[in-house]
Each structure stands twice: as C-alpha cells, then as structure tokens.
C-alpha cells in the first residue's frame, strides 16, 4: 500500500487532494461526503487517509463520482470497493468503459510515443509502482441521472466533456465555485514541461478534436477555481483557463 504524502487544498466545502501523480476531490455537505475519482490502485488507502485528514471517515462517503475510467482515476476506487459498499456514478457513456467492456487507455504499445519527453521514464517507473499495469474495473458502475444537480452531497452538477474518453465528465461544485475538471483540462503532468491550464499530451486523449471542443463547456461554467485531474489548483476565470490551454496546444509538438 502507498503511504505517499498528501497535499490538500481547500475552497469552502471542496478539497483537492494531490498524491504522487494522482489527484482526487472531496466535497462536504454537513457530515456527508462525495468523493470524485480515486487515484491508482495503490492509492485506495491514501484516499481513506485523506478523508481522515479532513476530519471524516470512509463511512461518511455517500457517493463516488468518476470523471473517466482511466486507471489513475478509478484504481483506488476499485480498491476501496473491496472493503466498502458505495454507489459509483458517472456519465452514461462512461459506464461500459468503467466496466471494461472496452478500454480507451494508452496501452504499453503506445507508451514509447511518450518516452522522448523529459520526465516520462520516471513517471512510467512511478505509475507502474502505483499499480498502473494491474488494471482495474468497476462492475458496480452506474449512470448518473442526466440533466441537473445530482442528488449527492454538494449538489454537484455534471459538465459533459466527452473527448479525453467518450464519456468524460467534469463536475461543478456550485457552493465552492469549483470545477473538478478531471483530464479534460489539467494544470501539469510529469510528462509536460508546461505549467498552468493545458491539455494532457496527445497520446493520452482518445479523441483529440472532441477534447478541444469539450472545453467550451468548461469556459461557460460559473466558477473561479479548477481542481484538475493532474497538477495544482488553478484560480481565475474559466475562459482564461481555456484560452491558455488552447494557446499552449498550438505550441506543443505533435
Ligand atoms: Zn489522469
């Protein structure tokens, strides 16, 4: 089990937890919690530690939301579900992916596409240590009800951002003005030299054009903070974040 350091950033009722190469988000409403994403397979225990660090216990979690079903976002959830029975909700289009009826993830065959990047060999070593090659699936995955605020702690609102995967969803936490952006928009990654709002490097995105278009939905969201799937919190307007990401893409090597 991983016992890496946790870095926690709080805005009102919403906490960004950073641990190794993974991020997740905790949203409080009274004594209840919603967990958004859960890191790599080795991070299940880290998620539980982060819940304790903000003064709660795993028994306070009423719902788990998933941005998308990549191993670095659902691995820890799959681990927690071996010990605790929790509802796991996501965009309807992401459910079959989470159940591993198919896989839209960078596989070992494409990893060499990344290895020229500074930082990539160490990243690969680290994430294999975190269980990246173990695989994970969520047979319990359920679709959330589409339309408006979800009936979960924090009254969280899904933001469809299909592209990174077919059913990727970001989430607005209205009380905090925070967007949990998953991998639709990140602010850093071990394989990137850029800082600030950016796309993940291309091999990670299943559908590149759709990943770009999806940012229109984030730009239109009333929020002042992004808690991304990778990298630190961003504070500023959503339109500025999206503009910066799109400008960075034009500078990026293919
Ligand atoms: Zn990710």
Automatic annotation (TrEMBL):
The UniProt record lists the Metallo-beta-lactamase domain at 21-230
Q: Which Pfam families match?
A: Lactamase_B (PF00753)
**Record-linked SMART domains:** Lactamase_B
Top-rank lineage group of the source organism: Bacteria
**InterPro entries of this UniProt entry?**
Metallo-B-lactamas (IPR001279), NDM-1-like (IPR050855), RibonucZ/Hydroxyglut_hydro (IPR036866)
Q: What is this protein called?
A: MBL fold metallo-hydrolase
**Species lineage:** Bacteria, Bacillati, Actinomycetota, Actinomycetes, Mycobacteriales
């Amino acid at each position: 089990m991983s016992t890496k350091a946790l870095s926690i950033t709080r805005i009102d009722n919403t906490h960004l937890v950073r641990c190794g190469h993974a991020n997740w988000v905790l949203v409080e409403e009274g004594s209840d919690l919603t967990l958004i994403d859960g890191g790599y397979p080795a991070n299940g225990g880290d998620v539980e530690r982060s819940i304790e660090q903000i003064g709660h216990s795993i028994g306070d979690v009423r719902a788990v939301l998933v941005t998308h079903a990549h191993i670095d976002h659902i691995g820890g959830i799959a681990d927690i579900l071996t010990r605790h029975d929790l509802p796991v909700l996501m965009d309807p289009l992401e459910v079959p992916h989470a159940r591993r009826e198919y896989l839209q993830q960078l596989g070992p065959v494409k990893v060499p596409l990344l290895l020229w990047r500074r930082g990539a060999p160490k990243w690969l070593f680290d994430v294999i240590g975190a269980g990246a090659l173990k695989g994970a699936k969520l047979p319990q995955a359920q679709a959330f009800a589409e339309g408006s605020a979800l009936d979960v702690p924090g009254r969280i609102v899904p933001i469809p951002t299909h592209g990174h995967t077919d059913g990727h969803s970001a989430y607005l936490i209205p009380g905090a003005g925070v967007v949990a952006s998953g991998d639709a928009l990140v602010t850093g990654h071990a394989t990137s030299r850029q800082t600030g709002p950016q796309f993940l490097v291309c091999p990670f995105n299943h559908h590149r054009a759709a990943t770009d278009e999806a940012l229109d939905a984030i730009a239109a969201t009333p929020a002042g903070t992004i808690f991304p799937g990778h990298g630190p919190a961003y504070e500023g307007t959503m339109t500025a974040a999206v503009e910066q990401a799109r400008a960075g893409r034009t500078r990026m090597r293919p």
